[in-house]
Amino acid sequence: MIEDDAYQGLNHLSTLILTGNPIQSLALGAFSGLSSLQKLVAVETNLASLEDFPIGHLKTLKELNVAHNLIHSFKFPEYFSNLPNLEHLDLSNNKIQNIYHEDLKVLQQMPLLNLSLDLSLNPLDFIEPGTFKEIKLNELTLRSNFNSTHVMKICIQGLAGLKINRLVLGEFKNERILKSFDRSVLEGLCNLTFEQFRIAYFSEFPKDDTSVFNCLVNVSVISLLSLNLDSLEALPKDCRWQHLELINCNLKQFPTLKLNSLKKFVFIDNKGMSTFTEFELPNLQFLDLKRNHLSFKGCCSHTNFGTTKLKHLDLSFNDVITMNSNFLGLEQLEHLDFQHSNLKQANDFSVFLSLRNLRYLDISYTNTRVVFHGIFVGLVSLQTLKMAGNSFQNNLLPDIFTELTNLIILDLSKCQLEQVSQMAFHSLPRLQVLNMSHNKLLSLDTRPYKPLHSLQILDCSFNRIMESKEQELQHLPRSLALLNLTQNDFACVCEHQSFLQWVKDQRQLLVGAEQMMCTQPLDMQDVPMLSFRNATCQMNKMIISVWVLTVLLVSVAGVLVYKFYFHLMLLAGCKKYGRGESTYDAFVIYSSQDEDWVRNELVKNLEEGVPPFQLCLHYRDFIPGVAIAANIIQEGFYKSRKVIVVVSQHFIQSRWCIFEYEIAQTWQFLSSRAGIIFIVLQKLEKSLLRQQVELYRLLNRNTYLEWEDSVLGRHIFWRRLRKALLDGKPWRPEGTADADSRQQEATAST
Asked: In which compartments does the protein localize (predicted)?
């Protein structure tokens, strides 16, 4: 039940659908208030008559659908005169059997020139002759209405005098009633005036008998859908068809048409043949041959289609198409479609060189591998290029769009691309839509897109993008409005923190930013990128910094300990033995090459002299089985008051001597009573001495003993050396006089 004023106040409502409601009562004012209603659907609402349908006040109504109801009468109620805008009336699948002259009286008084009427699936038995005389309609559809060809013939004759733009006859795929079809059935069409004719789903349509079209020679558009036609030959010579459609008509061979008037030919879904046959259609402008499994041994030139006026050519969803011509004579082409056909030799030369007027080109999924960089030369007017599902040499997109300066839409999806040349898009200033989805791009390198000053939509979804460097993101065109990065392999790690922050900042630019998921690392898998927290990275940075600093300090300490191990060892010994009494008066550092002088001169004069001095010598006093370095420190430095350094050329060239000397310096610094006595055996070359910078400086800053092999030189040398050794030596006063006399004797004997 729908009561009065049920829709009151809905002044702007344009569509009302009541389908499937078992309406039992409609008040006269049920639809009042719907002052803007344009479409009313009352399918399966138990409506029995149009007379009782209270819609006479709906002056804005354009479409009325009352299909699948219980309407028996075709009579148009008087209120239809109040529906001047009605364009479509669907009365299909009702109970209408007879149509009489009185039923269309309203249309005769006030013709609805744009009305399309659908009476399909009504069990028509009779149409009174003259009922449609002088009636003007836009379209009339009669499908699956007749239970025999005889009834169909009578009803078509009842349409005599009808002036109509488009007439549709036939049956539905799953509603086939007629078991046979006689050619005389359509003879009544000679009494109608119409521009377009469509006939569909007659399984027993007359074969090899073109006389069935005798009453259709004056129509402009004819469409034959799902008819069992073996061939279409010998059409009436005076045919004026401008548009012919042959869809799924089971033709065994390609029709060899000769229609000078034909401008548009649609031949699709006819899979009963495999080879294309050339035809002669001199005025043809539109040719659609898709989904026929046709093979073209040589394509394409004007000789294939018998015309030089072709503007639209669709060869999609066919078999092998071998390119051996660059569209000679087809220079007016504006639309060309090869998608899902197997193109051959398209890479051998500039196939499209002649097509300077082409606006649309689709070579998607044509098994084309782009090697020849001049493949698109000549397409200076192209606005749309679709080449999805193909491939490129080395999976690199090269600079092949040089002449496509007017391109607006470019589809490169599913091309297995891994890289994009920096100059790939440099000549596309007008490009607005670019599809790079379903490729194998590893990073979002935006530098190639920088020249695209008009780009509005960029789709990089379903790639393997992990991140994009911060400096590269700056190259995105300012005109970009939508960027799709969903379904990629994003790594949500701190290393990519700048990119992750960019995603958050640009969520208005990014399509489906909420659906952008992390794939790495494992603990972040399937987590939205927008959930990534930068604070985690700051914490990690602090932890890593502390850890690195700790490792660095430990490493430096280890290196220092390793490098100055013996110096530290010496420091520990100084603390241990610093206050004890020394065993030796001096530890002698010398080169083994100078050992004769040490034994015969130094040892003999100091240990056998007066007073005697006890020297520490490595060949005599070092403990066997102990490391040399340990002996040097423990036996040499720890137990000696002084250090005698015998400097010679051999000394300077000995690594062990230099090592002992460096330890001696540290020992001198650590021990308050330590002293180093330098003895220079012979004149040293300054260039050689400068190799040991510290030793050279010490000899320049400190007094040293220089050995001279003469009586006076020896006397001065031993006197000065003993004096240096006596400094700090524990002394017994009672032995002073004796010691002096013995010293003089020893000196004299020397």
From this structure: Cell membrane; Cell projection, Ruffle; Early endosome
Note the pLDDT tens digit of each residue in 595-647.
888 888 888 888 888 888 889 988 888 888 887 777 777 777 778 888 888 88
Cα(384)–Cα(266) distance, rounded to whole angstroms?
Answer: 22
Which is more confidently placed, 70 or 106?
A: 70
Gap between the Cα atoms of 345 and 296, Å rounded: 12
Alpha-carbon gap, residue 66 to 21, rounded angstroms = 12
Whole-angstrom Cα distance, residue 317 to residue 310? 20
Does residue 516 contact residue 486 with C-beta atoms inside 8 Å? yes
Q: How far apart are CA 129 and CA 123, in angstroms?
A: 18
**310: helix, strand or coil:** coil
pLDDT band at residue 567 using 50, 70 and 90 as cut-offs: low
What span, in angstroms and rounded, lies between the C-alpha atoms of 113 and 66?
20
Q: How confident is the model at residue 739, as a pLDDT?
A: 44
Model confidence at 8, pLDDT cuts 50, 70, 90, reads very high
Tokens of 312: 């639209």
What residues does 433 pair with on adjacent strands? 409, 457
Backbone angles phi, psi at 483, to 5 degrees: -130, 120
Residue 663: predicted pLDDT:
77
At 246-296, the pLDDT tens digits run 999 888 888 888 888 999 999 999 877 777 877 888 999 999 999 998 888
For every residue of 656-671, which 3-state class applies, written as one string? HHHHHHHHHHHHHHHC
Instruction: Using the structure block, give the residue that is written with the tokens 């004819």.
Output: 222
pTM of this prediction?
Answer: 0.70
What tens digit of pLDDT does each residue of 105-134 get?
888 887 667 899 999 999 999 999 999 998
Query: Is residue 389 a contact partner of residue 369, using CB atoms and an 8 Å limit?
Result: no
The upper half-sphere exposure of residue 16, i.e. CA atoms within 13 Å in the direction of its Cβ, equals: 26
**Are residues 304 and 325 in contact, defined by beta-carbon separation less than 8 angstroms?**
no
- The CATH-assigned architecture of domain 587-721 is 3-Layer(aba) Sandwich (3.40)
Torsion from C-alpha of 633, 639, 644, 645, nearest 10 degrees: 0
Q: How far apart are CA 481 and CA 468, in angstroms?
A: 19
Report whether pLDDT(685) > 80: no
| Six token digits for residue 206 | 């007359």
**CB 746 within 8 Å of CB 610:** yes
* Cβ neighbour number for residue 262 with a 10 Å cutoff: 23
Gap between the Cα atoms of 9 and 744, Å rounded: 142
pLDDT at 738: 46
Run of H or E including 102: none
First to last CA, the chain: 148
Q: Alpha-carbon distance 452 to 241, whole Å?
A: 46
Cβ–Cβ under 8 Å, residues 406 and 380: yes
Is the peptide bond prior to 521 cis by the omega test (within 30 degrees of 0)? yes
H or E, element range at 384: strand 384-386
Q: How do the domains of the chain map onto residue ranges? A: 587-721
Q: What is the crossing angle of helices 497-505 and 534-563, to 10°?
A: 170
CA–CA dist 66, 526 (Å, integer): 51
Going by the DSSP 8-state scheme, the letter that residue 132 receives in this structure is: T
Spatial CA neighbour of 680 closest among 624, 720, 637: 720
Look-up: residue for tokens 């209603």? 37
